């Protein structure tokens, strides 16, 4: 198989472009799948499209998060090259993705509940969860600026602000670090041991904060907080932060996601069901450090064996080889 990956060109917490590129390169270098040849491009002009078709002769094209001009898409289709749109933020943008998906042969989505939604609308869709790049997220010693009792890295959405406001009131003496954008509502409400870094950070910085925390909170986004999910499809697949935290050998308390059990056992990652449940578990695991470390070790081992991008993209290549892709 000759695969062309069209990059998103956007910087995110997830670092998706380089993570996916490095994963495919590792597969090709180690010959995990044969035959397999990998190419990637930003595709800035129609000349780029023609070059890829004539020189690299891809069997499949995957476009990450972008709506390419229709004439570019038709150029691939004219040469009978299936082209798919890869989306990573379902179900929150389902409405937008459906409109884009009609131009492509298929959609690749990270949300297990999304393919049925697309198929009802006549769009071929496949499920592939995200993963982790272990060269960015790994166990390491960090200095005191990154250490905490409780840590959260991510954007300040309403459900997260409410939870962290309550934790700030209840854990006055514990060190709490909150990192990400949109945390202005909490700036003047937290105590002397609570710190907010109100800006996005790199994967390398996030890894340090995970490594320095006794407990990393993984609060998923509310599945109903977007107007682009009109059918109120519930998010069931855990976010990529789940894998990032585990790859650092860090202990996490994660909000409930139905499909988490597809990835981890109950003694590898601990879920919480409510704010009261979260508070009880924070109190317990802050004291029981040995239990906390053993759980984190098991999650780390599982992640390295099953949830790196090299593993996940190998699954993707097999999917692309065995499914009928053209619409």
Describe this structure in words.
- 39% of the residues lie in helices and 17% in strands.
- The strands form 2 sheets. Strands 2-1-3-4-5-6 form a 6-stranded parallel beta sheet, sandwiched between helices.
- Helix 2 packs parallel to helix 3 (70-78).
- It has 2 domains: 2-131 and 308-322, Response regulator (Rossmann fold, 3-Layer(aba) Sandwich); 144-306, Rossmann fold (3-Layer(aba) Sandwich).
- It is built from 11 helices and 12 strands.
- The longest helix has 18 residues, at 289-306.
- With 327 residues, it is an alpha/beta fold.
- It is globular, with a radius of gyration of 21 Å.
Mean pLDDT: 94
Structural class estimated from helices and strands: alpha/beta
Number of helices: 11
The total strand number stands at 12
Task: State the end-to-end distance.
Answer: 19 Å
Helix content: 25-40%
| Unreliable segments of 5+ consecutive residues | none
CATH architecture field of the largest domain: 3-Layer(aba) Sandwich
CATH superfamily of the largest domain: Glycogen Phosphorylase B
Gyration radius from CA atoms, angstroms:
21 Å
Q: Biggest β-sheet: count, sense, barrel? A: 6 strands, parallel
């Amino acid at each position: 198989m000759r695969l062309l990956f069209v990059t998103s060109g956007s910087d995110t917490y997830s670092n998706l472009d380089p993570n996916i590129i490095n994963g495919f390169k590792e597969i090709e270098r180690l010959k995990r799948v044969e035959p397999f040849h990998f190419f990637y491009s930003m595709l800035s002009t129609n000349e780029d499209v023609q070059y890829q078709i004539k020189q690299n002769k891809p069997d499949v094209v995957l476009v990450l998060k972008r709506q390419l001009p229709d004439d570019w898409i038709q150029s691939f289709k004219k040469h009978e090259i299936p082209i798919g749109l890869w989306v990573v933020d379902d179900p929150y943008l389902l409405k937008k993705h459906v409109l884009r998906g009609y131009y492509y042969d298929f959609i690749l989505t990270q949300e297990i509940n999304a393919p049925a939604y697309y198929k009802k609308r006549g769009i071929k869709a496949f499920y592939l969860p995200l993963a982790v790049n272990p060269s960015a997220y790994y166990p390491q010693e960090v200095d005191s600026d990154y250490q905490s009792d409780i840590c959260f890295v991510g954007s300040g959405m309403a459900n997260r602000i409410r939870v962290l406001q309550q934790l700030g009131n209840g854990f006055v003496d514990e060190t709490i670090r909150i990192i990400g954008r949109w945390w202005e509502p909490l700036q003047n409400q937290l105590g002397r041991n609570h710190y907010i870094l109100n800006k996005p950070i790199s994967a390398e910085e996030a890894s340090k904060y995970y490594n320095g925390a006794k407990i990393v909170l993984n609060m998923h986004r509310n599945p109903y907080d977007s107007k682009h999910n009109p059918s109120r499809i519930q998010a069931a697949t855990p976010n990529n932060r789940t894998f990032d935290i585990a790859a650092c050998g860090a202990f996490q308390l994660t909000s409930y996601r139905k499909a988490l059990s597809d990835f981890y056992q109950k003694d590898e990652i601990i879920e919480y069901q409510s704010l009261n449940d979260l508070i009880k578990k924070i109190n317990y695991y802050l004291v029981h450090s040995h239990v906390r470390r053993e759980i984190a070790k098991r999650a780390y081992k599982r992640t390295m064996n099953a949830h790196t991008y090299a593993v996940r993209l190998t699954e993707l290549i097999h999917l692309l080889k065995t499914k009928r892709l053209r619409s």
